[in-house]
Amino acid sequence: MHDVRGYEEKNPEVVKHLTNGYPRFVVHPFARQLVKHFTASTPALHGRTLWLTSSAAMARALVAHLTSARGAELYTQHGLFGVSHPESADTSARAKVFLQNIGGFLSSREAEDHLVALGLLPAPHPEDVFKGDASAEIRRQLRSALTGASDADLFLANCGMSAVNAAFRAVNALQAPRGRTVWLQLGWLYLDTIAILQKFTSKPADYVYVRDVADLDGLRRIFAAHGTRIAGVVTEVPTNPLIQTPDLPAIAALCRQHGARLLVDPSMSSVFALDVLPHADLVISSLTKYTASEGDLTAGLVAVNPAGPDAAALRAGLAPLVEPLYARDAARLAWQIGQTRDVLARIHAATPQVVAFLAQHPAVKDVYWALQPGSRENYLRLARSPDATGGMITFTLKQLGGLEKFYDRLRLPKGPSFGMKTTLICPFMYLAHYDLVTTPAGLAELAASKLDPDLLRLCVGTEPVEEIIGALAEALG
To answer: Which molecular-function annotation in GO is an example for this chain (predicted)?
Structure first.
């Protein structure tokens, strides 16, 4: 926990050891090496900071975002795109957060290929990849999980947040001319989804946070009052991190009745575990989770419901907005995605056993998972089978201040992602919302949303379940 706090507070003694990390938060070493090469070899870049982006469109978006920063300029070199600006800690922070929020960083594999072409690396790292048409294979696998969707309905993105951003912008472009600018966030969602809704709605009053995913009457009152102005509803199924499942069919009916579009993110369990497309206008998902189970790439998906009222317009609108998946990332994902059902089967077999252990342990206070009371029936209504729970479990401890002792003793891999063959655990609120866990106002906001700042987020992997439970038992004492 000392290191978690040090990372969040940018303590040099901690940060100096962090050479790599989740790629939307930590710029990959290959990208840093490219930037160093270009800034050293290009006189016009001396004294400037360079950000390499996933595309020319992303570079243009970043320049537009930095309009108040003097001297921000587009960069194009060797088929790469980016933005440079005079050295400034404030401008750098703004650029980094923007690229983090919407998934705009250069792919590490693309950076690696450029380093090889420049003679700065001998060859790409060897890895197993799909030899044929990777995008076609990924879509073939996804079609089996998204019944009724054709290849034209499936848009592959460079990461989950790119998919969320493209979906939001595509719906916004359709709805705003209709006088619909209000967006509803249903439940506490992943931090960058929240950031997109907060930052990119037309004005602050157009962002509405509905705390309780089970409060259908409250949602009906909001629609009764503002229904003609509501552009869309964004929710996760189940939510992150309380793993609550709303009554999706009822919410879908409410949206259709009032002309709002419903965006559903099933990343916590996977599109292979949940059948949500019939209820959504757009399904947005991180393919980083469960489908890229080796944990070595990011990818995202926007799936259009072909039966939705705006399906054709959404397909046309999404095409220029989705940040493309780099070819080598696609080839690697196509090699892994065929393993998804087997990986999920192993995770689904282990997850209830871990839940049962935690629920009966005297040191554990609350346990949340897909089949928890209160939203179990809503989840099972969408699940492809009764055991298709995903691997996510969150829990809290009874002892006040017990987080640090438990976390430091725990011999499980620790990290902020999930949906891997490797079990991962993290103190989620510290990593996602450090500003909230460290201020009185933030703690009040968490309490209002029934979130314990010491909540632990555990995603079960494919290791022998007795090893996972054994490590938890040892740390819990």
So the answer is: cystathionine gamma-synthase activity
